[in-house]
């Protein structure tokens, strides 16, 4: 196995791109990443996407974006793992370079969600749940996470407003991210007064649907400095799964897939959780931030919320999370989200995060979750 490094980055602004097609968003992110790596040709392209067939009636994204980007003839394919699609695509690209099958590989996440009515998008997202035993019974992902949050509050004695700091922190960090969808501060009062969606979840607990694309270029570490002065090494890449339906799990409040994935990644990297300088959590809902922090080993069961309440998750805190706004404020173009996380960790490790720079960041982790925890991809990166 060869060591692998990230040599180029590209991303589009996250938002409602009425004037850009799915292929154009993909092209822009890929073109930017290739320019960053100072290359004109790649060996392969792996595209993470969840909903292109359902929402844009377009599949076959690998060949489509390769052709549109002037890369006709290369190996190219789409990888789908629900909201974990981009993380899964990164895992494939990493394995191809590490295994010596390819040398210079682009990995992209791309999604276009806002051209359809919200009811259709909500229905499409529910395809990542158990179709027979969750979606058919009327459970949306908001509904599933509301049930998890209600149970967590009941078992651990929290109030609804105790989750506010997750959202407040994400918005504070998004203010300084030019690619974020919501670059505005929110207050505890605004959080408390936000429109309810599925009790106890309200609008400010929830990440927004969005359009966007992000991309990285991978190469063997031995070649990396031929392309960039700031390569970032992939220390670990791990995937684990759990049941798709929450009610089939041994404990609905324990992200077993997240825990297994994180432990595999720590073992690969030869580190423990508190060796990390930052963590990009998959904060699709505030409850998921708490569950992810616990599963990844940063807090005991039922104590994930305390990290937020105690001020530990800000840029200058003990464990900075959602450092560029996270899913909550940067936005959540589902099939692209995992690649935005990896791009943002890389920016931190390259010292390119601007006002949000985590001081002396050397090791960073991203955890991309598909569904309500059925697929979890954990990536650990290191400053070269």
Describe this structure in words.
This protein has 384 residues and is of the alpha/beta class. The chain has 2 domains: 4-117 and 210-232, Thiolase/Chalcone synthase (Peroxisomal Thiolase, Chain A, domain 1, 3-Layer(aba) Sandwich); 138-202 and 235-383, Thiolase/Chalcone synthase (Peroxisomal Thiolase, Chain A, domain 1, 3-Layer(aba) Sandwich). It has helices at residues 22-37, 52-56, 61-68, 85-98, 118-125, 141-156, 164-174, 188-193, 256-269, 286-295, 304-309, 326-330, 334-349, and strands spanning 4-11, 44-48, 75-79, 105-111, 196-198, 201-202, 212-220, 232-241, 278-280, 363-370, 375-383. The strands form 2 sheets. It has a 9-stranded mixed β-sheet with strand order 3-2-4-7-1-8-11-10-9, sandwiched between helices. A two-stranded antiparallel ribbon has the order 5-6. Helix 1 packs across helix 3 (61-68) and helix 4 crosses helix 13 (334-349). The two termini are 18 Å apart.
């Amino acid at each position: 196995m060869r060591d692998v490094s990230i040599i180029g980055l590209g991303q589009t602004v996250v938002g409602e791109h009425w004037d850009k097609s799915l292929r154009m968003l993909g092209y822009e992110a890929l073109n930017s990443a290739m320019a960053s790596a100072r290359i004109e040709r790649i060996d392969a392209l792996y595209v993470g996407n969840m909903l292109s067939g359902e929402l844009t009636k377009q599949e076959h994204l690998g060949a489509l974006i390769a052709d549109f980007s002037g890369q006709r003839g290369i190996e190219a394919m789409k990888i789908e793992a629900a909201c974990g699609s981009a993380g899964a695509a990164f895992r494939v690209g990493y394995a191809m370079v590490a295994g010596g099958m390819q040398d210079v590989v682009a990995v992209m996440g791309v999604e276009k969600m806002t051209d359809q009515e919200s009811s259709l998008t909500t229905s499409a997202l529910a395809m990542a749940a158990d179709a027979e035993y969750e979606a058919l019974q009327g459970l949306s992902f908001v509904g599933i996470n509301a049930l998890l949050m209600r149970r967590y509050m009941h078992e651990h004695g929290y109030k609804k407003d105790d989750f506010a700091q997750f959202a407040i922190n994400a918005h504070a960090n998004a203010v300084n991210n030019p690619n974020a969808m919501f670059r505005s501060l929110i207050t505890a009062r605004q959080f408390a007064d936000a429109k309810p969606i599925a009790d106890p979840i309200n609008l400010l607990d929830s990440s927004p649907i969005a359009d966007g694309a992000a991309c990285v270029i991978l190469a063997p570490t031995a070649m990396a400095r031929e392309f960039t002065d700031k390569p970032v090494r992939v220390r670990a890449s791990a995937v684990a799964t759990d049941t798709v339906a929450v009610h089939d799990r041994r404990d609905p409040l324990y992200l077993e897939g997240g825990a297994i994935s994180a432990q595999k990644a720590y073992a690969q990297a030869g580190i423990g959780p508190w060796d990390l300088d930052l963590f990009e959590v998959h904060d699709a809902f505030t409850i998921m931030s708490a569950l992810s922090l616990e599963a990844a080993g940063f807090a005991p069961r039922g104590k994930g919320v305390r990290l937020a309440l105690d001020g530990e998750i800000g840029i200058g805190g003990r464990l900075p999370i959602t450092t560029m706004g996270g899913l909550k404020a940067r936005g959540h173009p589902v099939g692209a989200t995992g690649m935005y996380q990896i791009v943002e960790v890389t920016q931190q490790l390259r010292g390119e995060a601007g006002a949000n720079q985590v001081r002396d960041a050397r090791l960073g982790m991203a955890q991309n979750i598909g569904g309500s925890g059925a697929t979890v991809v954990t990536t650990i990166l290191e400053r070269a």
